[in-house]
Amino acid sequence: MTDPPPSPRPPELVSVAVLLIGAVAAGSLAVQLPAGAIPFPWSDAAGGAGLVVGLLPWHRFRGVGLIPPALTVAAAAAGWTAAVGWSTPAWVIALFPLGVVVGRSVVYLDRFDRWAWVWVFPAVLLVLFLGRRAVRLVPAVPSPDGLSDPAAALWLVYPAAALALFAWWALFRPFFELACEPIISLMYRVRGTGPGLTELPARGPCLVIGNHACWADPFLLAKVLPRPITPVMTAAFYDLPVIRWLMVRVIKAIRVPEKALKQDVPREIQEVIAALDRGECVVLFPEGYLRRSDERPLRRFGRGVWQVLSARPDTPVFPCWIEGGWGSYTSYKGGLPTKNKRPDFRRRIGVAVDGPVGVVPDVLAGHLVTRTDLMNRVIAARKWLGLPDLPPFELPKSGGDAEGEPPV
Q1: Beta strands in 32-121 (DSSP E)
Q2: How far apart are CA 328 and CA 336, in angstroms?
């Protein structure tokens, strides 16, 4: 089957909008300043510094979280100018966040379109020129400080404030994840490796599967994967206080109830298929079960992953291995997760993401063959972390499942 091209996501739309409006705002501010009123080296330095900050190698998705606070600061600086008149601090405070916005938008769009650098900057220059022309229509009235009319900046305040509010609504998730980075970095030292980190598609459906040793595994994967994920999470973690609100309202995770396997396609698997239909990156732990012992690092996968791939056989699958979660604060080693354990502090975590694989029709025809094949692909990802090989999994000789599932 051929996937339809995904519709633009809110971060892309916001990035385009802020590029254009940011250019208009910068041009308007520049044209209203009388010659010599503000030292231009300061303005050049402010905008340039903001552009450098925006172009830094932030997480490609979470880095967009800089845009809402940057637009808020720019709107506040415009309000300051409207209230008290032009001043060097207002000029610097306005241009620095606009530089951040432009730089971050270009990096984000470049991830989706390698020619973004070619068309974005001409668009900025064009809108800058139009902004300079348009602002000349604003009547100038002398202000008490002898500079331009503070009221002329009011027309910048309202659209800037409206755009900032829209950015908070559309980009709250990347901002939230960016704000959580210090906490995650304090608890874990995460190192990502493997070809999958660069080969993961910027847009369109994909399925990431891996081992499941602790509750924090989805957050560890989200830290290294360069795009937003839709995690499939068990009810034991999903239903925790505060976590549930975040999963429902911000992360949009898929909840899996704690229950035994069943033969039909459950609702949560239908939700995974629907998420892939929307072009999302779904993170699935096919064990459906947290690791319980030292001797068994990986349980036999459930039928869910086979049911998903049967419905969407062309979905690229990225096998991964997370090392270091077993024994952490949110694992079952030494007792229940978070019970009678010390919180993690700078715990070493390795995340290996292998390149995309497809399940051929002959393998996909049988659920046990599919599950066994994917289990072996997941343990094969360990090589990117330099870990020793695990014995390969084989089909049950009885034709049934070693986990007690009846023969099919």
Answers
A1: none
A2: 11
d(CA 91, CA 84) in angstroms, rounded, equals 12
Task: Give the pLDDT band (50/70/90) at residue 297.
Answer: very high
Q: What is the pLDDT of residue 335?
A: 92
* Alpha-helix runs per DSSP H in 87-171: 88-112, 116-135, 154-170
φ, ψ at 16 (rounded to 5°): -65, -45
For the chain, list the domains and their CATH numbers.
Answer: 10-170 (1.20.1250), 178-385 (3.40.1130.10)
Give the whole-angstrom CA distance, residue 382 versus residue 397: 26
Measured distance CA(229)–CA(316) in Å, rounded: 15
Q: For residue 322, which amino acid is it?
A: I
The pTM assigned to this predicted structure is: 0.81
pLDDT score at 313: 94
* Nearest-angstrom CA–CA distance, 209 and 216: 15
- Which residues are paired to 319 by β-bridges? 209
> Contact at 8 Å (CB) between 78 and 160?
yes
What residues does 317 pair with on adjacent strands?
A: 207, 357
What b/e sequence results for 202-239 when a residue is b if at least 16 CB atoms lie within 10 Å of its CB, and e otherwise? ebebbbbbbbbbbbbbbbbbbbbbebbbbbbbbeebbe
CA angle 57, 170, 135 (to 5 degrees): 85
The mean per-residue pLDDT over the stretch 53-79 comes to 85
Edge-to-edge strands, sheet with 188-193: 188-193, 347-353, 317-323, 206-210, 281-284, 229-234, 254-256
What SS3 class is residue 88?
A: helix
Position 224 confidence tier, pLDDT thresholds 50, 70, 90:
very high
CA angle 211, 216, 222 (to 5 degrees): 85
* C-alpha radius of gyration, the chain, whole number: 26
Helix (H, G, I), strand (E, B) or coil at 190: strand
End-to-end CA distance of the chain: 27
CA-based torsion, 237, 243, 249, 251: positive or negative: negative
Q: What are 394's two structure tokens?
A: 């084989």
